[in-house]
Amino acid sequence: MVVLTEQIIKGKTRLDKLEEVKNLNLWGQDLDDCSILAKLPNLEVLSLSVNRLSSLKDFRHCAKLQELYLRKNDVKDLNEIQYLVHLKDLRVLWLSDNPCAEDPHYKQFVVRMLPNLQKLDNDDVDTINLDAAGPGPALNGPAPAPPAPSAPPYASPPYGDHRPQSRGSPATTPSDQGVIGGTTPGSVSRPTGGFSGGGGGRSSKNILYAVMALLGELDDDDLVYVRREIEQRLSNR
């Protein structure tokens, strides 16, 4: 069992308090326990693609969640969607490449359960034909009640602008990676000195050529997140 811990989160985000975390990217960490998410009340964008999560129950505490990326996990039961019904701000959900997504009426079921959703996997919700939906899986009782709110013993700190991070294909590219807290996944290492943005050094050009080559391996949705990452970096210069 690989448990998501406070130490891992702080190491990724470089933030001192869990309450300050609004963006979190933990692609490909073999995680199967994310119960600590209950301590991240201000989380807005979360990427946990390519892990081993089998349930969505830990996300029910993230009341401000807007985007949730869970490609290539192990969610088998569509009824797990019940844990997301009280997340009224959730607009983007990715569950493709989970066993539950193999259900022929998977998308119709999810959209009906989450009426505020705008994008499911690579589809705009408006393009999903709800008339084609069958009865769907039987719900095991009513949807779980949202967790009772508790008054935090701290004053709300001012938050900076945290934008969604980039994602990619796990086969050959740094999927769902959005560089968080200055770190990159182990699959793509950065030479010492890195890319300074304006230099023409040999190592910088090698990195540029490698990036250009990898772009050809990405599909359309991955390229969207790469573009968002680039825009964020340019705006911060």
**Percentage of residues assigned to helices:** 10-25%
Q: Please give the CATH architecture of the domain at 6-132.
A: Alpha-Beta Horseshoe
> Quick one: overall form?
globular
What can be said about the biggest beta sheet? 6 strands, mixed
Class per helix and strand makeup:
alpha/beta
Q: Provide the gyration radius in Å.
A: 19 Å
Number of helices: 4
Number of strands: 6
Order of helices and strands: HEEEEHEEHH
CATH homology superfamily of the domain at 6-132: Ribonuclease Inhibitor
Features:
repeat; U2A'/phosphoprotein 32 family A C-terminal domain-containing protein; leucine-rich repeat; alpha/beta; single chain; 6-stranded mixed beta sheet; 237 residues; LRR_dom_sf; Leucine-rich repeat, LRR (right-handed beta-alpha superhelix); 4 helices
Protein described:
This protein is 19% helix and 7% strand. With 237 residues, the protein is an alpha/beta fold. The protein has a domain at 6-132: Leucine-rich repeat, LRR (right-handed beta-alpha superhelix) (Alpha-Beta Horseshoe). Strands 1-2-3-4-5-6 form a six-stranded mixed beta sheet. The chain is globular, with a radius of gyration of 19 Å.
What's the gist of this structure?
This protein is of the alpha/beta class and 237 residues long.
What is the fold's blueprint, element by element?
Blueprint: H1 6-13, E1 23-25, E2 45-47, E3 67-69, E4 92-94, H2 106-113, E5 119-120, E6 123-124, H3 202-215, H4 220-235
Parallel strand pairs: 1-2, 2-3, 3-4, 4-5
Antiparallel strand pairs: 5-6
InterPro entries: Leu-rich_rpt (IPR001611), LRR_dom_sf (IPR032675)
Organism: Volvox carteri f. nagariensis
GO cellular component, one term: axoneme
